[in-house]
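Dear Dr. V.,

Thank you for agreeing to look over these. As mentioned in my earlier message, I'm a first-year student in the group and I'm still getting used to reading structure tokens, so any feedback on how I've presented them would be very welcome. I ran two proteins. I've put each sequence directly above its structure. The first is here:
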Amino acid sequence: MPKKVIVIGTGPGGLTSAMLLAHHGYQVEVFEKQPYIGGRNGSLTFDGFTFDIGPTFLMMKYILDEMFELSGRRTEQYLTIKEIEPLYRLVFSGNRVFMPSARDREGTLAQMEELFPGSTAGYWKFMTHEKKKFDRLVPCLQVPYTKWSDYLKPRMLRALPYLDAHRSVFGHLGRFFAYNDLKTAFTFQAKYLGMSPWECPATFSMLSYIEHGLGIWHPIGGLNQITKAMAKVVEEDGGKIHLGVGVAEVVVNDGKATGVKLDNGETVHGDYVLLNADFAHAMHNLIPRQHLKKWTPETLAQKRYSCSTFMLYLGLDNQYDIPHHNIIFTKDYEQNVRDIAETKRLSKEFSIYIQNTWRTDPTLAPPGQSAVYILVPAPNTTGPMDWDKEAAAFRDRTIEIAETDGGMTGLRQHIIAERVITPFDWQRSYFVHNGATFNLAHNVRQMLIWRPHNASEDIGNMYLVGGGTHPGSGLPTIFESGRISSALIMARDGKKLE
């Protein structure tokens, strides 16, 4: 009789585990509170337009390919994935534009020399250093950390000289580049983790190497298609997925998870419970307090959380001639970031990200129209902002920046469909603790062994996946959390994930 795994949530971590375990003979049953697949990696569709709710960058595509291979499939059987070129358009004050490429290295260097004279030698030095960091650190993010002796294993000892955890990402880039705007071009990726480049450990400087060295990708139909494809694999291998069926509580007996109680009152039993809900939200709402010893609400209140995001999803009756990914930096980027992270107030001037999907993907909007996604990094809900009062004015200012600095002249006249998600909405409607869309922050004391372990430290037979556990936020690392937890479950049963 195959052992049964109950998965809470259809985010990318939960579905990675679900398809790996279903393919390797486990009975898998997935429960999703929302009426759609994907969690924050789901889709938002209205008035003929489709948007990714959350992630819009796919990096390290080979990790995704490996997950499908471990499930006996090939990614291309389920997804059509295009590489994005250029990587993005970066707009600095004075309308100075830098559009780096992962494939046209000569063009990238020519732009760099024009905008930031004398910087190309630093670029090669940076890429050489970061490749070594990438090669040595990635294996360290593919295994669990449960005891201090894990730090003494050869893979970690080889990586130690490249951790750079004692300095910030922005400070680290000062070793290679003199111009602040160029440093920003290689450090804004800290926002993928919801952190400030002036606080984020320089360990994560390899994110920009990953983009420049390996490229950025987009599945046709949006990144939401990844979780939909994973769900299809789960069902092909006999797993069951229940949408619109929330879990009210993890059932714990004698310190071990034995199943879940659903919102409708039904109890479903299983041998293992795999938790893919937002970690801090789950510890506050899904686990009875008496079963928590380490990750209690009191402990979580002392932890640091990522920033949040303010989202605009705009259906337009025209198409703008700008690249797929666009980042518009405010003049005082550092102050903007510090306002978000420290005072948790909105800057008068702020940076925005614009995804202009029609340049790559014609399926997301009617012919001649376009689906535009705008994200603004914003304070999480622990700050003083009242988004119910501030959202309308902030929305108008965001559109103004897209019009004046983002190359989208007359944008407001072309909006024919619109949705807004504020930090309050992330917390109330998407069950994200503190509206922190990138989960627990990735400071040194909340990484590796200090981050919630993949095998729950409080409850036996419960495993964690997603951005709130090791190795952290971002799609590739979330896929890895699914692989790690699946391998741990299988090891319990004398099996190997291969």
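The second protein is here, in the same arrangement:
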Amino acid sequence: MANLRANNIVGVGSTDAGVVFDGVTKIKTQNYFYLQTGNTDARFPNFATNAVSPNSARGVFGGGSTPTIVNTIEYITIATTGNATDFGDLTTARRLAGSCASSTRGLFGGAYNPYSASIEYITISSTGNALSFGNLTQSRGILSSCSNSIRGLFGGGYVTPAAVNTIDYVTIASTGNAQDFGDLFTGSYATSACASPTRGVLGNGRVPSVTNTLEYITIASTGNSKDFGDLTQARSGSAACSSSTRGLFGGGESPGAQNTIDYLTISTTGNAVDFGDLTQARFYLASCSSIIRGVFGGGMTPTKVNTIDYVTITSTSNATDFGDLTEIKNYLAACSNGHGGLG
């Protein structure tokens, strides 16, 4: 006979108690019916989040300029500290691309000078070279990207002679060309973006003057962006990351290198609030996150650096040293399999 006991159901912040059947349950019945044996928590896994555990979530940094344009990919385990490790190579050298991810795949799309429309993908939990995914709706670079567990969005960018206001989307689990999502307020580039499972928030950049404007979209829909609020200061070339509730925007140029980190609550609208400072003022850096930590890597001061630093997203404080990238570079892109857009 099976043993009955009370047990906490595993989940994020869960303290619900339920009944678990331990051991083998044998049932005699005249009906054509079979009750499975085993623990109920094994048959009903936690679907509260699509993100990889914060303890094992990986951050991946791809492309950039050293000063030559590179195709290198490197990775870190976000919950630890230490130097980045080689992952593989992109299909082509690219800089100022956009990058987003699901819990499985990371995407890199677009590039600047030479401009590109190509999108490629990696499997984040492995190592190896990227594969072709498809194309954006137009060639452009200096764009930003965010995602939930299903869709990846690429917004804004630049292609001679002007900035563009295009927003594209793709289904991350597939391959194929991007489709039109809608438009930003106006053409902008050198922006940064982050997401919750519902919303994407894109901000700052150049239009062509530096701006502190924030705008948002609902990822599961299509349509033009809406006003969110403002960052604490106008700047371009910053980097953004998020938990499922809070977005961080760090660094940037205004006009010199900045170390400011701002935060906002993604589900609301309103102006950003000061969070703290990076360990080093820099711009054209890249950021990735788990639902606990935000990590900022690379950039320029204006001298190129390989600095990686991190913050705890739920707090407010200055960043702490994490380690170093494998290369000194700027104009890189980053994503993770544990970010806030995944839940």
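From my reading of the second output: Residues 3-43 form one domain. The first helix runs from residue 40 to 43. Does that match how you would interpret it?

Kind regards,
E.
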